[in-house]
């Protein structure tokens, strides 16, 4: 039942768009609700997992990556690869200076 | 791509340097994705600052997040998701040449963008009133609610000159009400003592939400441009590329907010 434009571009069905929107709303509700429970250090990872699921839904369906040339997704995802490198190396760097910068490190 | 009139049967919507409408569309799209990649890296610098500070000083973020209104943050998340939906629907409308529907959907998306900025203005205003600002501008002052704590000088029970007939029996060995509770007991409302450098949280908060807000404003500008194109009849023939590109940009604005809401408002 999928529609296409004259030059073969996929047209997302309204039903699919509504479904994704509802899923995103539920995801938002879930993100807020889980903060009421204490999972210790896992809280932030649960939150990030839900946020990333939402981001993937937006990317795949709202941004049409699911039907697009894979190269576009590759370009977009490469931004995150470089972002993780940036964050990872900055964290490795700052970890080396904790004892100098913060009295009493490591905390806890 | 201005309208050409060569009289040679050339499609006015196809630029000369492209072989086909599809190639032109795919090129525009790839260009847009490369731009969105730079956008992610643009925000990326701030996410790095956030991560490094939060790993080193988690207490600053726990403290600072208490001053953000989760309800308003969640409301803005809902508003942006709704706008992402309306602009995604707008792309569909443009693809199917539903011009009137397209106009309404662009207007609905703009309405959401303005609603988002309105809520943001309310939030910024309350931060401003409490001096919860960035770096050197940070001067946190507590509002009335905290001023009616009894102090030693005004409390007759502890002021020796207040009443000449006052009992000579010393008051119970208990501090006057309202003083700080001993360590270990926590109070939910005015939680903990302000950690050193709490201002760093607000510097990061204003930089991240501010850069995001500028992107929302730019999105409003892009949608005004779309309405102009629509009025000119650009979309009548089913040429939806412009709507598609603005929509992609708008979805990234939504994506960034999904993470900002989690990382700034929902810390505990």
Give a quick summary of the entry.
The complex is a heterodimer of chains A (108) and B (268). Chain A has two domains: 68 residues; 40 residues. Chain A has four helices and two strands.
3D architecture notes:
The complex is a heterodimer of chains A (108) and B (268). With 108 residues, chain A is mainly alpha-helical. Chain A has 2 domains: 1-68; 69-108. Helix content of chain A is 67%, strand content 4%. Chain A has a two-stranded antiparallel sheet. In chain A, a hairpin with a 5-residue loop joins strand 1 and strand 2 (10-11). In chain A, helix 1 runs antiparallel to helix 2 (42-62). The relative contact order of chain A is 0.08. Chain B has 268 residues and is mostly helical. Chain B has a domain at 53-131 and 200-268: Cytochrome c oxidase, subunit III, four-helix bundle (Four Helix Bundle (Hemerythrin (Met), subunit A)), CATH 1.20.120.80. In chain B, 60% of the residues lie in helices and 0% in strands. Chain B has 6 helices and no strands. Chain B has helices at 21-56, 58-65, 70-95, 99-129, 199-232, 241-265. In chain B, helix 1 (21-56) packs across helix 2, helix 2 crosses helix 5 and helix 3 packs antiparallel against helix 4. The longest helix of chain B has 36 residues, at 21-56. Mean pLDDT of chain B is 81; it is low at 144-156 and 181-190.
Mean pLDDT of chain A: 88
Strand content of chain A: under 5%
Supply the helix-strand structural class of chain B: mainly alpha
CATH topology of the domain at 53-131 and 200-268 in chain B: Four Helix Bundle (Hemerythrin (Met), subunit A)
* Secondary structure: number of strands of chain B: 0
Oligomerization category of the chains in this entry: heterodimer
Record field, number of beta strands of chain A:
2
Radius of gyration of chain B: 28 Å
CATH C-level class of the domain at 53-131 and 200-268 in chain B:
Mainly Alpha
- Going by CATH, the architecture of the domain at 53-131 and 200-268 in chain B would be Up-down Bundle
- The amount of helix of chain B comes to 55-70%
CATH superfamily of the domain at 53-131 and 200-268 in chain B: Cytochrome c oxidase, subunit III, four-helix bundle
Strand content of chain B: under 5%
The helix-strand sequence of chain A is: EEHHHH
Principal-axis shape of chain A equals flat
Number of helices of chain A: 4
Which residue ranges of chain A are poorly predicted, with pLDDT under 50 across at least 5 consecutive positions?
none
Q: How many structural domains in the coordinates of chain A?
A: 2
Largest interface: A-B, 52 and 49 residues
Which series of helices and strands of chain B comes N to C?
HHHHHH
